[in-house]
Write a structure and sequence with these properties.
The protein has 185 residues and is mainly beta. The protein is built from 2 helices and 9 strands, in the order H-H-E-E-E-E-E-E-E-E-E.
Amino acid sequence: MVQIFCRLVVIAAIISGGGLAAQGGVAWNQFNEVEYNGIQRNVLKLSLGPSFENPSPQAVTLLSGRFQYLINDYFGIRGETGIPLASKIQNYGYLPLTLGGDVHLFPRSMFDIYLGGDGGFLYVDIPQRGNGWFSRTSLHVGLSFYFWGVFFLEGEVRYNVQHFAGNPASNLSALGYNAQIGFYF
């Protein structure tokens, strides 16, 4: 999985030319207008998609929603939450609420690689083991593909650091990944 992601990152960097398309004033969207190319300052991005988190046997699939406000072409503030769709444990409650930031490496390019981190809280409810709010921190790296002027696809790999302090305590820290589709304006 990691090898495939690394290959996609290299291909995206080669194709995007490090943002050269935007610097040269070439429009690559259906509006034929440069200002719609990729990300840019003062843009709000909204997206939804599946997110796969936690080690087995506490694995959970979420419908994840994310917003991101881009302060400038390189830096963005983001928030994310999700609702459980499926889990290996019946009646498993899992609700992450995080805020964080991203650094975009190829702004205003059709392909954009980003990295960042976020932190926040996580509600966990495991039947017969307890429930509660716990801290959560994660680092992530992702790839965005912008198309048709206002839409984008995103893939992301992250490492979550989170602990369940129920009875008995569990370390829920693990590699997670998600894919999202969204729009920006």
